[in-house]
Structure formats: C-alpha cells, structure tokens
Amino acid sequence: MIKEFVALAALSGAVGCASMATPRQATLAGLADSTVIHDDIAYLASDRLEGRLTGTPGNDSAAAYLARRYATLGLRPTSPGYLQKFSAHSAADAHVGIMTGKPTQNVVAILPGTDSRLSNEYIVIGAHFDHLGRDSQFALDPEAKDAIRKGADDNASGTAAVLQLARMFKRARPRRSVIFVNFSGEEEGLLGSEWFVDHAPVPLDSIVAMINFDMVGRLRDNKLLVYGTATATELSALLDSANVHGAVPFKISGSGDGFGASDQSSFYGRGIPVLHFFTDNHEDYHRATDDVQKINSGGEARVVDLAYRVVESIDHLGSRPTFNRSTAASPMRTSASSGSQVYLGTIPDMAAGDTPGLKLTGVRPASPAETGGLMAGDVIIEFGGVKVTDLQSYSDALYAHKPGDTVKVGIVRAGKPMQISVTLAKRGG
Domain limits at 170? Predict the structure, then answer.
C-alpha cells in the first residue's frame, strides 16, 4: 500500500453543488449492513477457499460465489456471463522461469442507469478478490511456510464493500450505469484490472470514474485514507461534502495522485478519474494472521456508506468529472507490468506505522538487496540521493533507475546511520 499526502483542492463552489446534488443520500445513507459484510468476509477468508490464490480452485470458488451474489441481486452479466476469463502471466513467475499463465477470472456485473441521456456513461466500483493462498513468495511471514494466508482484510474486505454497494445501488436506481467488478491477479501485479481495461465490456471513454477498495476492514481511530482526490477537478469537494454528511465524519488523509499499489492505477493510467479507499496497513498484512476475527465490520459499513454518498454525488453531476492527469510516473505499473523492470528484492515492513523512511522486514534470498548488505530491520532513508520518507517515495526513487545501475542507499541500522551500495538487477531476468 501507499502512503502519500497532498492538500485538498479549494473548491468551495463545487462543495455547494455536491451538497445539493444528492437528494437520495438522506434515505440511503447509513444502510450498509455490517452483518452481511462480516458474513461475506468470513466466507471469502474461510479455510475452504485456501486464501484465493490466483489460478487455484479456491480462487475459482470465490469467483463463483460473487457471480451468484450478483445474480441474486438481479444485476446483468457481461456476455456470455459474469466471469471475464483470462490467463494471468506474472513477473514473479517469469523470474523463476514459469512461462505458462494461470487460468483465472474477473467477475463483472452491470446495473443499467435510468437516465436515457446518461445511461451510456459508467461508474466502475471495484476491488480485487485474490490473495496469497499457501504461497509464501510474497508473504511477510515466510516462517509460516505453507500456512493459509486468508486475506480477510486483503482483500475480502474490499470485495464485501463492492457487494454492499451493489445491493445499495440496485435499490437506489442511479442515473448513470454502474459496473461492479472484482479483480483476480492483483497480488501478481494488477493483472486482473489490466486485463479489464484492455478488454472492457464498454468503451473505456464511457467510464467516467472508478472507485476502488483495498483493505477497508480495519478502521482504527476513525482514520481513513482516500487516494486519487486530485484525479478530477470535482472529487476533493465531493469527498469533503460526503464526509460532512456522515453521522460522524472521518479523519481523512491521503493523496491526490491516482497511481499506487492497487487496481485504481490501471484505470488512472487510461485517463479515468479514480478514488481508492483504504483503512491503512497493519501487522497482519500478507501474513497468515489476517483473519476475519480482526475485522471491524461496523467500521467498514461506515466506509461503504461514505463511498455510497461519493458515488451518488458523481452520479448526480450534470457532466462527467473533469479528468486531471498527474505528471508522476506509476511506480506499480512500472514495477509489475512485465518481466523486464528494475529489481532490488526488499520486503517492506507494512506495519512500521509512522517510522520515518522505509523499514524492511526482510530481503529476498540471493537478491541485489541481500548481496549489497541490506537486511531485516534496516530503515531506508535515502536512495540514489533522493530522500525516502515512505513506501511511495522509495518506489519513486527505485523506479527512476534501470537494471545495472549501482546506487548508494542511506539507511539507519540499530539506530546508526550508514551508507551502502547496491547494484540493481532486472526483474524476471
């Protein structure tokens, strides 16, 4: 996940417009069902699905469950059904010489809009449903070996949020059409969302916004992260207004940039405004301890209610949101889209909290990081002369280089600053 912060745009006039443009908020706000959210997460994160690893029977069973839920709601499938099948080819597999793809599928359902003028415009609401399964390759607890990484928060929680919003919008009858999509292959490098935008069931230029949920089940201290607020001129004001209309407004921080370590990046890279909801990292991220008992389903219901109000506001705009393009490159798209990008082999400690810099929980065996002398517990504070404050700034600094570059890395080890050199390799090479 990413940690980045920019100031919200000063759009007081748009705030007023957003406030007047959501007449159904009063009747539907607060209707997300925390019990159903809990039950959906409990099933998706159950032992029987074995962590929903892309290309496994557990992932297929999860997809079938989602398709049944959409069918029960009466949402339309995409032709020939709810499943958008594809073959997932990951950079990680290429790195170890596996060139055959994993058969998997996105799950897609459409709610047609009611306004004849606007029904050919679409709002996409999405989340990935895959996780790590028994594979320890990207796990942060390799000592647990083949234990099931159930992924209750990552990302059964986001999947449950999409299901809730499908239920709520089926009742609300929005003016624009809404596509609900659950992506596979996110943990492999945003593969499902990349496949979706490359094979979208509607013209990409008819998608006016994409709302993404990744890890929204651990709300703490009323703090919510929302990324992408500057990807359209109107979004900051719409979010502010929706938050004010909640019973207890969230303490919202985040970033204006639409790129980051989740599926909204695939849409933003194609010129679509995005928002990404996230309740922050925790000590169970990519570990076998991410289970349903630790989910705050009541808190997630509040996040869903806020997202509902935001989407309602977008739906009530007279014209599509005004897209803003960032000048920043996409770290995730650069690092994961193929097997030919720069590789270091660090494993960030996603539970490091407010530690300045990027703390490492480990390094990959035989990686450039290990060869260069980086180790678990190191805190990277500078990379190639660029200050590192968090995962996002580290990613920006790393992907500004190319394979073969030798880079000086400033670290803090056991409280002492020091500098080492690493030679970057080619991912998948």
Answer: 12-315
